[in-house]
Amino acid sequence: MFGIYSPSSAQEVLTKQEAITQMLDNNFGIQLAENQLDIADNNQDILNSGYLPSLTGNAGANYTKDDQDVTFRDGESNSITGAETTRYNASVNFNYVLFDGLGRFWNYKSLKEEYNLSSLQARETIELTLLQLFTVYYEVARLTENEQVLKQTYGNTQQRLKRAEYSFEYGQVNKLEVLNAEVDIVNDSINLLNTRQLLENAKRDLNVVINTDLDRNFDVDTLVDFTNQIQLENYVNSADANNVNLLQAEKNITISDYDYKASKAVFLPSIGLTGSYGWNEGNFPVTSFATSSTTTGVSGGVSLSWDLFDGGRGITTTKNAKIQYDNQQLVKEQIKKEVTRDIYNARGNYQNRLNVLDLQKKNISTAKNNFERSSEQYKLGQITSVELRQSQVNLLNAQTSSNLAKYDAKLAELELLQLTGQLLNIEF
């Protein structure tokens, strides 16, 4: 009388490690973070340091045509209409800053630290994306297990309906028993259909995180292992040296320190080298002392520039850089306090969810025993179908609550591992 569509089981099993690999290869957020890291790597290169000289090439040509009236020193004069003059030049020019008040030295070191900061930012992106991945992965796992529980519940209700129909047919029970079973099997069918829809949605969410085909179907690994408590405590104790937010704060302090030191370059002189190799050629009319000339040669020099007073802008910049450095120190202390709080909260949440999981496991054993006894009593006519249904619902709730508690506890552990800076160092 009642039936429900049962989809064919997926053949592919998407393991945790495979999901991580596909996420690292395909996730858009991680790709963007890696591109930003490449930009920072380019910026820290010697080509962007200011330490290399500049070499430029120049070339030019000039032509003039004019009427000239010329009087020479010996008193002779000459007039030319349409006198033509042509000039050509080419040169290679060399410029190099020998000393700029140590500005580029500290700027170069700052670029190195900015690359390290970008590396930490990329790591943070990977950590947060990994948490997102397992939030969805474990949701798929939870719904998968819930589906199995609901299928089992549906099967038990089907058997009860058949038994009630046979009993009614032989006059052993009234029609109410059949009607109750029919209502219950409809409710079980709805719950199973809703769970399957949620499961399909969750799989699509996971496909988005790993950036694969949205219609891709798969099973997931529902096995959950927890980290050794002693090892986890060691991670918590070393969190100050490994938390990614604290490490970023340290880099920002270092960068601000270098920026402050670089700002002091305005108070020191700048010394540079210049050099040139050039060629010049000119062709002149008869009114000139020479009809043509060609020169080639090398020139070079040393220059010194010292901004003795720039109106106070340099002093202001240096003062502000020092304040920025002090601000980064304050930001680090604030982050340290917040991270410590978050770790305490995460550790408390984790321990609480482990305790809840232990209680839920015990509750399953009790509910299963109660349902088995209720089933026997129902067969003997000692309890009603309503009482049997209540024991069945209690077992269903215990099983689904245990599934939720298991994955909640694992996610709480992963959040704690991320805060301690060890999320990328564990095996899944």
TrEMBL record:
Secretion signal span: none
GO molecular function list: efflux transmembrane transporter activity; porin activity
Keywords from the named record: Cell outer membrane, Membrane, Transmembrane, Transmembrane beta strand, Transport
CC terms in the record's Gene Ontology section: cell outer membrane; efflux pump complex
Tagged with keyword Membrane: yes
Localization: Cell outer membrane
InterPro entries, A to Z: OMP_efflux, TolC-like
Protein family: Belongs to the outer membrane factor (OMF) (TC 1.B.17) family.
PANTHER family documented for this protein: OUTER MEMBRANE PROTEIN TOLC (PTHR30026:SF20)
Protein name: Outer membrane efflux protein TolC
Source organism per UniProt: Psychroflexus gondwanensis ACAM 44
